[in-house]
């Protein structure tokens, strides 16, 4: 198994996509930034110098400490502390974990819904295609953030005392079902690709031999349309993270005891004009770094998978 994996990695490294990555400084830099952010978020329990959300370890006497390099800063807190004495650096790492989890989960759900409906619409056609596309048009007529805000707000109203799991599920659903960054983009993209693929010779041959439509879609059409889906999913991860941060900033996102980057920015915004700028600036910088690096990787992947640019 080890030799097989090594051979696969070697082939990938020397492929056209691997060569495109090696010769693109922007892609390498974006991958490095994304790796550092994701690593710190996933392994926050071991990397973070403090546990910022453990009430037993908080010291109110350390509240509003500036970053270490400013006058009054402490070597114990590199990026300073907030109003409750929580270490900003540690809070950013833990908050980024929540943002990435919600973003990736919402994109995964959007891919499943959008690809399934797009395949069905493009392959079956007729009234099924018309109905699914009209639903997409209706959803796209509303701003995505308003749709997500409406779903999240209704979820909070229906489950005011819900557990953290229910809150996270409602938040993921609200982002996935929103038009601009949700399943609609995948459905429209996959439908267009499926309309091209369904008239290819290999699909016609499979139909003649008696293969079922479901098997043709799953085994023959789907693998040939995954390229655009991968590119779109990479870019939409950043959109989903920003949408989650926006909802958390507005107070309908993740629960306060599991704050994301949006929640940290919202808390720091209260003290921005009192001179404690670091409480909101550093979480905002982390959000920008994650979104920008993922977007740059998505742009590179789109160009790398485009045969016309090779």
UniProtKB/TrEMBL annotation:
Domain ABC transmembrane type-1: residue ranges: 96-298
Record-annotated membrane-spanning stretches: 26-48, 98-126, 138-159, 165-184, 225-250, 277-301
Entries under PROSITE patterns matching the protein: ABC_TM1
Subcellular locations according to the entry: Cell membrane
Membrane topology according to the record: Multi-pass membrane protein
Pfam family, one: BPD_transp_1
Keywords from the named record: Cell membrane, Membrane, Transmembrane, Transmembrane helix, Transport
Source organism, top-level taxon: Bacteria
Main localization category: membrane
Family label: Belongs to the binding-protein-dependent transport system permease family.
UniProt-recorded name of the protein: ABC transporter permease
Protein's organism: Ramlibacter aquaticus
Lineage: Bacteria, Pseudomonadati, Pseudomonadota, Betaproteobacteria, Burkholderiales
């Amino acid at each position: 198994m080890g030799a097989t994996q090594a051979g696969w990695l070697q082939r990938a490294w020397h492929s056209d996509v691997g060569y495109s990555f090696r010769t693109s400084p922007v892609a390498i830099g974006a991958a490095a930034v994304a790796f550092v952010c994701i690593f710190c978020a996933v392994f926050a329990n071991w990397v973070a110098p403090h546990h910022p959300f453990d009430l037993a370890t908080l010291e109110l006497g350390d509240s509003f400490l500036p970053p270490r390099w400013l006058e009054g800063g402490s070597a114990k807190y590199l990026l300073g502390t907030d109003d409750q004495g929580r270490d900003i650096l540690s809070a950013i790492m833990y908050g980024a974990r929540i943002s990435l989890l919600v973003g990736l989960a919402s994109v995964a759900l959007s891919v499943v819904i959008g690809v399934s409906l797009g395949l069905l619409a493009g392959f079956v056609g007729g009234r099924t295609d018309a109905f699914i596309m009209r639903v997409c048009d209706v959803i796209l007529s509303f701003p995505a953030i308003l749709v997500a805000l409406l779903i999240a707000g209704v979820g909070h109203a229906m489950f005011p005392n819900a557990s953290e799991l229910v809150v996270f599920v409602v938040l993921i659903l609200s982002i996935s079902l929103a038009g601009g960054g949700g399943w609609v983009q995948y459905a429209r993209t996959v439908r267009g690709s499926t309309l091209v693929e369904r008239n290819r010779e290999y699909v016609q041959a499979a139909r003649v031999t008696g293969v079922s439509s479901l098997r043709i879609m799953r085994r023959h059409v789907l693998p040939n349309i995954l390229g655009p889906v991968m590119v779109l999913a990479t870019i939409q991860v950043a959109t989903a993270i920003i949408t989650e941060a926006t909802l958390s900033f507005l107070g309908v996102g993740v629960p306060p005891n599991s704050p994301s980057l949006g929640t940290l920015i919202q808390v720091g915004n209260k003290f921005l004009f009192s001179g404690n700028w670091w409480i909101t600036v550093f979480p905002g910088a982390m959000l920008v770094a994650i979104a920008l690096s993922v977007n740059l990787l998505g742009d590179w992947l789109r160009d790398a998978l485009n045969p016309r640019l090779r």
